[in-house]
Amino acid sequence: MEERFAEGDSVIHRTDPAVRALAATLYSFTVALMDSLEALGLALLFSIALAAAARLTIRPLVQRLAAAAGFLLLLWLLLPWSYPGEALGRLGPLVISRQGVRICLLVTCKTAAILIGFTALVATMHLSTLGHTLHRIGLPPKLVHLLLLAYRYIFVIQTEYQRLLRAAKIRNFRPVTTMHTYQTYAYLIGMLFVRASERSVRVHQAMKCRGFNGRFHSLDSFGATVWNPVLATAVVLVSAAMIYINIG
How far apart are CA 42 and CA 61, in angstroms? Predict the structure, then answer.
C-alpha cells in the first residue's frame, strides 16, 4: 500500500495523529449529515484549505478522487431522469428532475469534501502510526492488531500468490474458459490459504519468542504542539458553522 502523503513537514504532519483522527471523524460525520448546498460549499472550501495546509500534491489527490468518479458518474446518469419531482428540463422523452439533480449535487459535494478532508488529515500519517493512534483513542486492541497485521502481511500473501501463479504459467498453464482453468484457480487459492495459515502459525510463534504481550509499542512520540488546538478549534468551528447553515 502506497503511503505517498505520509512523508512531509507541513502543519498537518506536525499535528498529533490522535487529534487528526478525531477531527477527521467529527468532520466526516458532520459533512455526511448535511443536506444544504451552502453548508457543503463551506465544507469543500475547508477541505481544500486542509489539503493546502498538508501540502498535498494535486495529481495523486485527483487520482484518489477519480476512484469515486465511476460511482458519481453512474449517479448522474441515472438519478436526474428517474427521481420524481419538479421538471428542470427535457432531453427528448426524458424529464430531468430538479430534486434528482440536487441529490446528485449533494452526494458529489459530500464525496469530494470527505475524501479531500480525510486524505489531508488521515492519509498524511503512516498506517502503523494510525494503528497506534486508534489504540490511543480507545479502539479495542484486537481490532488494532487486525489492522496492523493485515497491513503487514497482505503484501506477503500477494507475493505468494504471484509466485504460485508464475509456477503455474511455467508449467504451460493458460487461463481459458474451461473446467480445467477453474480447477487450477481453485487449487491455487486453496494452496494460498494453506500457506497463509502456515505462515500465521510461524509469525505467532516468532512474536511469542520475542516477548509479545498483546501490545505493539511505537517508537514515535507525539507531544503537544501549537497546531493541536488550532486544528481542533478550526474543525469544531467549521462543523458548527455547517450545522448552523444547514438548520438555518
Answer: 19
pLDDT for 221 equals 67
φ and ψ of 109, to 5 deg: -65, -40
- Return the domain boundaries, the chain: 17-125+222-247, 139-209
Residue-level length of the chain? 248
69-82 and 58-67 are packed helices; what angle lies between their axes, rounded to 10 degrees? Answer: 50
pLDDT tens, position by position, 189-230: 999 999 888 888 998 899 889 888 777 766 666 667 888 999
